[in-house]
Specification:
31% helix; globular; alpha+beta; 7 strands; Pnp Oxidase, Chain A
């Protein structure tokens, strides 16, 4: 089954910063604010991203791996995440989904924490065999944020 996913629309930086401010103000537990260190500038950058709880860590995905937060976390894996008003120092690590077992592990986390997300977002029917979902790794990359200390 081929995904009908299309990339989300571009958002100007001022809109992202407004979202960051609102998430901090209202202490959202659905989205986190991630602060990375710029891979080129060395400056701190904060953006809102969706996440799910993965044990004691947090899991997020990015379409194509082209977002600055994702590339910055690859270059400088020590990040700060803010969830529900709580600020956490974390280590970011990419999550491979090259095998059906690796992808199944990630999908299980999402299905448990956010049922229906992959069906709605990637347009896959529930119960689709994982071997038929392997193309997710062609356009989605995953990052785990493990709290430090």
């Amino acid at each position: 089954m081929k995904s009908k996913f299309t990339a989300p629309p571009y958002q100007p930086k001022w809109i992202l910063q407004l979202q960051v401010g609102l998430l901090r103000l209202f202490k959202s537990k659905r989205f986190m604010v991630i602060t990375t260190t710029g891979r080129k500038t060395g400056q701190k950058r904060s953006v809102p991203i969706d996440y799910v709880l993965d044990g004691s860590a947090y899991l997020a995905f990015n379409m194509g791996g082209h977002s600055n937060w994702y590339r910055n976390a690859l270059a400088n894996p020590i990040v700060t995440v803010e969830i529900g008003g709580k600020v956490i120092q974390a280590c970011a690590e990419p999550v491979p989904v090259d095998t059906p077992e690796q992808l199944r592990r990630v999908l299980d986390v999402y299905e448990h924490e956010r049922p229906g997300l992959f069906e709605d977002f990637f347009n896959y029917a529930a119960g689709t065999p994982v071997v038929d979902l392997m193309d997710i790794g062609k356009f989605a990359v995953f990052m785990r944020f493990s709290p430090m200390g």
